[in-house]
Amino acid sequence: MNKDILKGKWNEIKGDLKKKWGNLTDDDWTRISGDRDKLIGTLQQRYGRSKEEMGREIDEFFEDWERRNRKVS
Question: Which CATH number goes with the domain that contains 26?
Fold first, then answer.
């Protein structure tokens, strides 16, 4: 998911992200505000994993989210 799409769909995606990564606070989510790099950095701090690991996990999450939320025409 590219950065513009993430920012545009942030409010839709945020609820599902909160379910997956519940250790983040509401202040974290406000600070992240649809910025993928901030999301990775905050998750790294909270979960103690590498940037690459979190990047892969986020990419997998977004691919799955898009697949589940794809509108059928």
Answer: 1.10.1470.10
Residue 18 CA neighbour count, 13 Å, CB half? 14
Specify if 73 maps to a domain.
Answer: no
Q: Which long-range contacts (CB under 8 A, 24 or more apart) does 12-15 make?
A: 12/69, 13/62, 13/65
Q: In whole angstroms, give the CA distance from residue 24 to residue 17.
A: 10
Range of the domain at 42: 3-68
Q: Is residue 22 part of a domain?
A: yes
pTM of the model: 0.85
In tens, the pLDDT along 59-72 reads: 999 999 999 888 76
Q: Cα(46)–Cα(38) distance, rounded to whole angstroms? A: 12
